Amino acid sequence: MDEDFPEELLDTVKNFDKGIDELEKGFADLLAMNRTEFFEELDPLSRAKIDIVSLYSINSLFWMLMKTLGHNPQASDVKAELGRVRSAIARCKEIQDREKRGKVNQDAARRMVTSGLWKPGEQKLRHDGGRDEPERSSEMQEAANPPRKKIRQCDV
Questions:
Q1: Which terminus of the chain has fewer Cβ atoms in its 10 Å neighbourhood, N or C?
Q2: How far is CA 141 from CA 49, 108, 109, 124, 136, in A?
Q3: What pTM value is reported for the model?
Q4: At what angle do helices 78-100 and 44-68 cross, to 10 degrees?
């Protein structure tokens, strides 16, 4: 290297150069592909992930460029843009977690509630699949507040 270059920065610059080389290797496959053909094969969530990674990488590289040129990147809009990208990452994770969340079998849940509300001596509540919502809600209301009936006791 140049004789005027400070010795204490030599390791830092080597690590920086190594990181840039690894970044180039990582993006080489992505840059070699035709973007439109590649995106056609992906689902919308994967497309969003790739766009977010690209945005974050470009903004991070610009941050490093500003640092190496001696500018303060926190005083520019780069920090706000990185924050915007981080919020997009959080939204993407939220969507991904929503897909992983278990689905509720509403018919099974309805059966469990009605059986839990049933009391011995009352007629069992039956659920018909093709009824309208108002009928179902009135049935649930009746099940929640059953009429008071006297139970006859038989001598056995």
A1: C
A2: 46, 18, 16, 14, 9
A3: 0.52
A4: 150
